[in-house]
Specification:
single chain, 316 residues, alpha/beta, 2 domains, 8-stranded mixed beta sheet, 9 helices, hydrolase, Peptidase_S33
């Protein structure tokens, strides 16, 4: 067993924001344990129960929450009248801070995966005094370089699958913002238009999930409501490059240079260039990057073991 057994929350509730969002949250572990917060990926995947298993429930008090627009939070990004203008990285950072204050936490460990690592780094550089340690897997920073890699560069590796995605917006030339163009289709009020775009984007996600062999269908995309909300949020955040300037994270690393950190990436993770994270860690003296040779973006047993080892070490 690599991860801890699944435990049930000892507390849960809803955070109401001033702009009409209801953020579902839960707390697991020991009420007096070391504080931690989980930032799920996607964007739009939701805080699934398996996230709880990265922490020793005897030593941690962990806050998990569904980010705006997904999971048990409301309104959903899949709603016909969804307003994505109130779902940005800055809004999510404010939600993290509101949850920290709600639970009377001074500082906490931040654990994030994939998109959650971008959000975690953005939160840390904005509020370094509130972060005790950082643990990120599938680490990315969602810069334009990385988003272009996810689309145009990977399109050279999987030209057949990419041609299907590109066929939705043939007017967008290489170098253009493909994710924004697809997001516009996803927000079209015609169900035939937005569901077709959602299916196409989720097909592309499935293609990138494995380096070789045929794509493996993800059960969660079989739900058209989930697929639509997920695709809307992903293309919304990616199309705006995480709502951060190009140096929004890399230009502020001095703020987090004294925060211990563990980052994990699979060598076979083709969803983003590994070099971006490697260069980032080179500038953080207390950060360690583990490159797992035989695992991809989703990670597996080795990645899980490294994450659990990190949370265990930081609990001492």
């Amino acid at each position: 067993m690599v991860r801890y057994p699944l435990v049930e929350p000892f507390d849960e509730g809803v955070l109401e924001t001033s702009d009409g969002h209801h953020i579902r949250w839960e707390r697991v572990g020991s009420p007096g344990g070391k504080p931690a917060v989980v930032l799920h990926g996607g964007p739009g995947s939701g805080a699934a129960p398996w996230w709880r298993r990265y922490f020793d429930p005897e030593r941690y008090c962990v806050t998990l929450f569904d980010q705006r627009g997904c999971g048990g939070s409301r309104p959903l990004a899949s709603d016909p009248d969804a307003d994505l203008s109130t779902i940005t990285t800055q809004h999510l950072i404010a939600d993290i801070e509101a949850l920290r204050e709600l639970h009377a936490v001074e500082r906490w460990l931040v654990l994030g995966g994939s998109w959650g690592s971008t959000l975690g780094l953005a939160y840390a550089v904005a509020h370094p005094e509130r972060v005790s340690e950082m643990v990120f897997w599938g680490a990315v920073t969602t810069t334009r370089e990385e988003v272009d890699w996810l689309t145009w560069t990977m399109g050279e590796i999987y030209p057949e699958a990419f041609a299907s995605l590109r066929s939705l917006v043939p007017h967008v030339e290489r170098g253009g913002n493909l994710t924004i163009a697809i997001n516009e289709l996803l927000l079209d009020r015609d169900p035939a238009v937005h569901h077709r775009a959602a299916r196409a984007w989720c097909d592309w996600e499935e293609r990138l999930a494995a380096l070789t062999g045929p794509p493996v269908a993800s059960p969660r995309y079989a739900d058209p409501t989930f697929a639509l909300g997920f695709a809307r949020l992903v293309t919304h955040f990616f199309g705006h490059h995480a709502f951060l300037p190009s140096d929004g994270i890399s230009g502020h690393l001095d703020a987090i240079r004294d925060i211990p950190a563990v980052l994990v990436r699979g060598r076979l993770d083709i969803a983003a260039p590994l070099g971006v994270v490697h260069r980032l860690v080179e500038r953080l003296p207390l950060a360690t990057l583990h490159v797992v040779e035989d695992e991809d973006h989703g990670g597996a047993e080795v990645t899980d073991g490294l994450i659990v080892r990190a949370t265990d070490d930081f609990a001492r």
